[in-house]
Amino acid sequence: MTVPRRRRGWQCVAALSISGxxxxxxxxxxxxxxxxxxxxxxxxxxxxxxxxxxGLSVLxxxxxxxxxxxxxxxxxxxxxxxxxxxxxxxxxxSLEGRAYALGLGLRAQQTIRTVDDKxxxxxxxxGFASERFKLxxxxxxxxxxxxxxxxxxxxxSLLIYQSDLCSAMLDHLExxxxxxxxxxxxxxxxxxxxxxxxxxxxxxxxxxxxELPSADLVAGCDGVNSAVRxxxxxxxxxFEVAQTKxxxxxxxxxxxxxxxELDPTAVHLFTGKGGTSAFIEPTARGACALINWxxxxxxxxxxxxxxxxxxxxxxxxxxxxxxxxxxxxxxxAGKQFVSQKASQASxxxxxxxxxxxxxxxxDAAHSTGGVSGQGCSxxxxxxxxxxxxxxxxxxxxxxxxxxVLSMYSRQQVPEGHALLDLSLGPSEKAGPLRKALxxxxxxxxxxxxxxxxxxxxxxxxxxxSLTPFSDIRRDRDFFFGExxxxxxxxxxxxxxxxxxxxxxxxxxxxVVMLSSDGQRFPSHAVVLAxxxxxxxxxxxxxxxxxxxxxxxxxxxxxxxSAKPEAVTGASAAAVSAVLDFIxxxxxxxxxxxxxxxxxxxxxxxxxSLQEALASSVxxxxxxxxxxxxxxxxxxxxxxGEQLGAAARTFVLNNFSSCASTDPFTRWPQKVLEHLLKSDxxxxxxxxxxxxxxxxxxxxxxxxxxxxxxxLSAIRWPLLSLSTLEALSDSKGxxxxxxxxxxxxxxxxxxxxxxxxxxxxxxxxxxxxxxxxLGCAAKGGVVIAGQGSPGKEPLKPKAIRPHEGTLLVLDGTxxxxxxxxxxxxxxxxxxxxxKGSELQDSFEDMADIWSGPDDAFYILDRDAERxxxxxxxxxxVASKGTIRLERPCGVAVEGPDRAVYVLDREGSRxxxxxxxxxxxxxxxxxxxxxxxxxxxxxxxxxxxxxGGRLYISDTGNHRVQRWDPGAKVGITVAGGHGCGSGAxxxxxxxxxxxxxxxxxxVADVGNHRVMKWRDGAKAGVLAAGGYGPGDGLHQxxxxxxxxxxxxxxxxxxxxxxxxVMRWSPPSISTxxxxxxxx
Length: 1077
Prior knowledge:
Blueprint: E1 57-61, H1 65-76, E2 80-84, E3 101-104, H2 106-113, H3 117-123, E4 128-130, E5 132-136, E6 142-146, E7 157-161, H4 162-177, E8 183-186, E9 190-195, E10 200-205, E11 208-212, E12 217-220, H5 227-235, E13 241-245, E14 249-255, E15 266-271, E16 277-283, E17 286-293, H6 311-321, H7 331-339, E18 346-350, E19 354-355, E20 358-360, H8 375-394, H9 401-424, H10 432-450, H11 458-464, H12 469-474, H13 477-480, H14 486-505, E21 511-514, E22 520-523, H15 525-529, H16 533-543, H17 553-559, E23 565-567, H18 572-584, H19 594-603, H20 607-617, H21 626-634, H22 641-653, H23 655-659, H24 669-676, H25 686-698, H26 704-710, H27 721-728, H28 736-749, E24 781-785, E25 796-802, E26 805-810, E27 817-822, E28 827-832, E29 845-850, E30 856-860, E31 865-870, E32 873-876, E33 889-893, E34 898-903, E35 908-913, E36 916-922, E37 940-943, E38 949-953, E39 958-962, E40 970-974, E41 988-993, E42 999-1003, E43 1008-1012, E44 1020-1024, E45 1038-1043, E46 1049-1053, E47 1058-1062, H29 1069-1076
């Protein structure tokens, strides 16, 4: 929504947070910073008495002459400068289609020489010196408006393309400061965002967006359509800018040389047919012509210049409009004309040239649309004035940067306003008589000056003198009307400052702002109405008697009449802060008032206050706290885009802290529901989100239906399976619709843990999702090895539960060892191998299995045997007629303690029982058929009740179930090639089967453990699965898996040298009580 600009010229300076209170960006010029009269510009060599080091960080938008000259001056003073330019480097060699030669007169030459004479001498060869200006009234009649004699011996004006001028200035910059580390130039980069109050900005180049650190100063040298000016306008309601398009359109032609019939040293102005004109300048590259016309004007059946599309037609038409230069309008000129897009010049007029840390220079502050020919000169004058003020006032430790920007505006605003007046001539307000007299006087003055009588013409005076534009303008008050004096420009701010004193004294107040707690704030209706359309409407309603009118006896007695009242609906602290900001531009407020202030700023369309809140409250050292943010969301309405974005980010990252505050209980349903639906919500687990919904429901009566609606934002499958099962039971509780809905949703969500339903998006703050755990944990817990409290090094190759402890086959050293790990003690003891009585009994431990009666079994691969160990005694358990060959896995099952060995590098399974042996699965050769196996040396075997076998067929990337007596196996996991899909495995290792047929598989190549239900077509993630790594949510080459008596998953995380437990969390009794309460 557009905010009407105030008619007062109060300026803007940014302030920071002090003493724990928020001092918002101020619109007040510091006391004593009054205007300064224009002074002569000085060279860098003449400034030795001033401090030479500023140390400011400066962002300059625009690499035109003003921006480059400012950069040169500030770099010389010790600043760090980053220049951002949307166009390409002018030194690339190509002239842009609309490039027109600039005229550098005395003013421009003087400003360039303030850097040093060498820069000017470097620039001159790229331009063309000219002292003549001819006005052609007809093909045969021409008037010399300026001749060499008018220059009074001064150096002639230099006509130069802007690209050539900027190229020379860039070379000078890089030569002098390229190695300083304080200069950065970014071409083809646009200022995407700017916080004018703080100096924070972002720049976009192509698709890349770069956040820049906050600058001490941001200089807008970016032309008529300035991005810096737009940022100021958006942030400061007092900022007034009038951008007006001038009538007519123009295009630029470039000629290889000046037309032969014209003076090659002069600038020529031709008036063509139908109000058209051609302005031709000599340049170092030939000549250029600016062709201007009014759209829709046709002369003697000639088409309008704006309608031309054919090069030949353009050549003929231009020759007809301008017969005096017809010979120069060649076929190439016709092509140039139709290939360009017509342009329209604009004027710009601002009431101030700064706000916060941002400042405007050149066309961004005061464009004349090229009418005066002084645009470049005045822009560079801005640069030098600003640089000298900064070095004298800041470098001299007299003022801070913000005060200096106010001084700059006071000095340069009159100059910009005056130049625009002089460029356009008397306005309509002057009346037709004065305009006619002005035109007659200008013509007479031009003619008389040729005779040595009177002052030189205005254009000559602007070009060949250093007289301030404001003085030249005041000399013409008779024709234009009175131009304000410097004191009047200064007093605009002073008058505004006095308004706040009048309000506090109650003087001239004509409206009362009434707070919700009954306090009264006398104010001025005209001041409030100037802030926004909404406040204007409120003031109109109050004066019309449409709003409540209540008057205290004391006020009636004092004033004799009642004042209209406007009810604000906010506390006295909030109303006081908002009025302070409106009147003085600054406000101090305690943090708990911020939400109310934000609401008033939003309701009253006070954009500048919203920006101020966002800059101060949302800064790194600002006032965003859980109470403030929860209070903002309790408003139940928007409170500003920038502050809203900062608050939303804060609440999503600190949801539980915000939900723990009192304002949380007042959040509207839609606010809570919207936040809970965000992927960026950071909570410990999904149980926590459900708990806060239940608490919000219980905080206020009558929220049952609203809470049921909010339950749609809960991502139910992310809850742990134990939570889902506990909440699914609503029997015996008179809980109403809320608890019943929770039970229904939980029942439906349990299938996701079985892999029967697709998962919702996992919130970004969660580490992952796993079957059984959901997102209720950050992953597993290290119980042994690297990262465990025991700190004993392990390289777990196999693990088995054993009599309440855990057997770990440790491969840290050959031939390996079997460690009995005591889980509660976080330590273990060696039962076989190094550190035990059986230290030298084995050649190569490849696998282990736990048996009854404290016995366990070791597969000794190189010895091609299985050894039973009980009470320190060993016995070979693989006796029989079939001799083992390169065995890789072992399992023991049944009362007869049948030993199953995955043999011959995983191609067959041999059973040994009481000295007898027989092959029960696979074949003599490896293969991929249903009756074959290709497990390889890393294959594993699991023996379930009744002799049912599960074989990790590693080479075929599958798990085969082999029932007793079967000739072929059945694929129960994987079998769809090597891959990472839910229906695939990659080099599966250890397996563990439950009585119901569910199989857990250590999917080594995918760094995960998968759970496959009996008959399932795909598995579901049970552990790891988020890339190889050592995070608690990750695994790296998990080689074995087992399930303990409590249902916890235990994983041999070989690649991370640790053993992990993945167990479902305990059910939250607090959650159960909140849901059912």
